[in-house]
């Protein structure tokens, strides 16, 4: 028997193939218990390929053989325990070099749930497994498949009547002797015996005390614990894990596997919060013309991404300090869902267009963008991205092409744009452009071309084309650093002395990348980087008093849902419904002169006209 060390610290070498304490378990798919496995469309194999650590077969003894069925009326001549479970498991075990799974750390127990007459079933079971005893004999090989008897079992004082080849599923209300307990593989009970909780939300505090107590008792005895008759949902699994169970009861093993195998991508903890800026609000909502406008686009950023960032930063974001907010509908001209091309074109030109179109209308006609419109009033502009500068969102503010993939054509469109500063990656599309003289021509137009951020930081004036190597715009979690906030600050420094004012669009491009890859840590670290950029914009707006800051998104990506958060720990867990864009409305936040015009619900292309109005342009 496992030595007892304390209420929640009894060590267990089981389940994950490593030594863990009950208080420090890390659950994964191998902690799944495939309940009523016979009910699966493909018995055994569905659970086996989901790498469940426990598989339950309900059995009856009829005419000298064991049959798998949940009810005696379901007994079928072909559905024997030997054919459905014992023979295949033995074959897997031998194929895997005397391990249940190809993953040598993964363990397996076969739970034989005896529906009636254990006196007949157990002798027949021992007879049927005799030909491959080594597969189920953990005394000879600790990696063997454990045989656990549940349901209609002998009284504890008769456990010793059966060989140690088999163990038993215990109950928390039975007082076992130490010898009897040595034959118990796990402790199980029905969830409804302790709570009316239906798997939604959390159990009541009183019920949670009862649930934790029964689990703790099993752990004091050095045994893993399982509740049966639990709901099958991510929320239920999360709560059961938090309560301390060792086996997750499931009728959907494939879903459970997907949930646990992606946890590195679906959970994130930020131990230390970064500080946020508290605005003065002196210019916020003033009914006067804005001299400058900073448009910050979190590509793929929806409310869930914002809330994930908020919880992971322990309840603080620069963004959530903004008081004026609205919601923008993002549909494209040719579809309910929009991509970055149509979404950004709506923001940049005030015209809805087809997906993939850059700076042109649904019929392919060129649309004048904000940069060129404002240039006519001597207002200078900068376009910044921590991604490919020829990608859809930044491109919509300076290019006009029928397909977002036309990277070299988009690069060449810079020749006819009025933008003063362009910062992002994809040097290749400029260097290897069909127009071999593109960079020379851009130089003739006054652009100073830089291929490092440090060079850009040294500039004092003039037009700037900053074409960073792809490594410089790698994800934050791979070490990019705060280039977005620094690029914004540098662009402000270069443009702030322009008497007519400036317009800057800065894109947090890689929130979208994280959404497409269904990677929550990626999303949140990019969200935090974007939020630090928002903080830099707000600081300048307060210093200047004439700057409107707008924060929005071109669309939401991933259909992110948050399943669990801990604001004190900065912990979040989530799930994604798609790897593509969704039609969910996106938030619009505003701060500074004219900010109140961004309240309410409106189409995304209206933001273009609201920006013109902020500048005093009708």
List the topology elements.
Elements: E1 11-13, E2 19-21, E3 32-34, H1 45-49, E4 54-62, E5 65-68, H2 81-95, E6 109-114, H3 118-128, H4 133-136, E7 146-151, E8 166-170, H5 178-181, E9 184-190, H6 205-220, E10 225-228, H7 234-243, E11 248-250, H8 253-261, H9 263-266, E12 267-269, E13 292-298, H10 303-312, E14 324-329, H11 340-349, H12 370-375, E15 380-388, H13 392-395, H14 407-412, E16 421-425, H15 428-431, H16 438-444, E17 447-450, H17 453-457, E18 463-468, H18 483-495, E19 502-508, H19 510-516, H20 520-544, E20 547-552, E21 556-557, E22 560-566, E23 571-576, E24 581-582, E25 586-591, E26 600-603, H21 606-614
Parallel strand pairs: 3-4, 3-11, 4-6, 6-7, 7-8, 8-9, 9-10, 13-19, 13-20, 14-26, 15-16, 15-19, 16-18, 17-18
Antiparallel strand pairs: 1-2, 4-5, 12-23, 14-25, 20-25, 21-24, 22-23
Helix pairs in contact: 10-20, 18-20, 19-20
Assembly type: single chain
Number of extended strands:
26
End-to-end Cα distance, whole Å, is 82 Å
CATH superfamily membership of the largest domain: Alkaline Phosphatase, subunit A
Low-confidence stretches: 1-24
Summarize the structure.
This protein is α/β, with parallel strands linked by helices. It is 30% helix and 22% strand.
Describe this protein's structure.
- The chain is of the alpha/beta class.
- The chain is built from 21 helices and 26 strands.
- The protein has a ten-stranded mixed sheet, sandwiched between helices. Strands 3, 4, 5, 6, 7, 8, 9, 10 and 11 form a nine-stranded mixed sheet that branches. It has a three-stranded antiparallel sheet with strand order 12-23-22, with helices on both faces.
- The radius of gyration is 31 Å and the shape is elongated.
């Amino acid at each position: 028997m496992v030595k007892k060390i304390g209420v929640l610290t009894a060590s267990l070498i089981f389940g994950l193939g490593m030594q863990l304490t009950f208080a420090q378990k890390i659950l994964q798919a191998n902690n799944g218990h495939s309940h009523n496995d016979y009910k699966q469309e493909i018995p055994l194999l569905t659970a086996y390929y989901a790498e469940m650590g426990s598989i339950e077969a309900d059995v009856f003894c009829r005419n000298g053989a064991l049959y798998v069925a949940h009810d005696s009326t379901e007994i079928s001549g072909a559905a024997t325990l030997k054919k459905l479970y014992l023979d295949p498991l033995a074959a897997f075990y031998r194929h895997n070099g005397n391990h249940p799974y190809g993953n040598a750390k993964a363990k397996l127990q076969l739970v034989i749930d005896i529906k009636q007459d254990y006196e007949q079933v157990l002798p027949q079971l021992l007879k049927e497994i005799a030909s491959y005893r080594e597969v189920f004999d953990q005394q000879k090989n600790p990696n063997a498949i454990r045989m656990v008897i549940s349901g209609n079992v002998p009284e504890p004082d008769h456990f010793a009547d059966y060989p140690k080849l088999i163990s038993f599923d215990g109950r928390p209300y039975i007082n076992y002797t130490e010898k009897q307990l040595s034959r118990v593989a796990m402790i199980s009970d029905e969830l409804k015996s302790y709570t009316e909780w239906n798997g939604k939300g959390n159990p009541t505090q009183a019920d949670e005390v009862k649930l934790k107590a029964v689990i703790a008792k099993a752990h004091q005895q050095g045994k893993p614990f399982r509740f049966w008759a639990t709901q099958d949902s991510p929320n239920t699994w999360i709560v059961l894990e938090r309560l301390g169970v060792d086996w997750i009861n499931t009728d959907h093993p494939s879903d459970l596997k997907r949930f646990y195998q992606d946890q590195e991508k679906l959970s994130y903890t930020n131990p230390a919060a970064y500080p946020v800026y508290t605005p003065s609000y002196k210019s916020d909502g003033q009914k006067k013309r804005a001299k400058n406008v900073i448009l910050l686009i979190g590509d793929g950023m929806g409310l869930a991404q914002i809330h994930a960032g908020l919880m992971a930063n322990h309840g603080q974001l620069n963004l959530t300090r903004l008081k004026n907010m609205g919601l923008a509908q993002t549909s494209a001209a040719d579809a309910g869902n929009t991509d970055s091309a149509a979404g950004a074109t709506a923001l940049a030109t005030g015209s809805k267009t087809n997906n993939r179109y850059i700076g042109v209308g649904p019929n392919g006609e060129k649309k004048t963008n904000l940069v060129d419109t404002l240039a006519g009033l001597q207002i200078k502009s900068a376009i910044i991205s921590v991604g490919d500068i020829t990608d859809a969102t930044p491109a919509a503010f300076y290019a006009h092409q029928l397909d977002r993939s036309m990277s070299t054509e988009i690069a060449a469109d810079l020749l006819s744009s009025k933008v003063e500063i362009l910062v992002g990656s994809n040097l290749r599309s400029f260097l290897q452009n069909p127009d071999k003289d593109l960079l020379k021509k851009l130089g003739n137009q006054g652009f100073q071309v830089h291929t490092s951020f440090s060079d850009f930081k040294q500039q004092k004036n003039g037009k700037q084309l900053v074409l960073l190597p792809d490594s410089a715009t790698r994800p934050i979690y791979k070490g990019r650093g705060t280039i977005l906030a620094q690029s914004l600050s540098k662009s402000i420094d270069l443009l702030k002395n322009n008497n007519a004012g400036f317009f800057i669009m800065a894109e947090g491009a890689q929130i979208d990348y994280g959404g497409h890859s269904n990677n929550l840590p990626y999303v949140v670290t990019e969200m935090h980087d974007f939020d630090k950029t928002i903080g830099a914009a707000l600081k300048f707006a307060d210093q200047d008093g004439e700057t409107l800051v707008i924060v929005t998104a071109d669309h939401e990506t991933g259909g992110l849902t948050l399943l669990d958060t801990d604001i004190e720990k900065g912990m979040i867990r989530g799930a994604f419904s798609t790897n593509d864009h969704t039609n969910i409305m996106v938030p619009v936040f505003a701060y500074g002169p004219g900010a109140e015009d961004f309240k309410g619900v409106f189409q995304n292309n209206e933001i273009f006209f609201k920006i013109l109005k902020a500048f005093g342009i009708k």
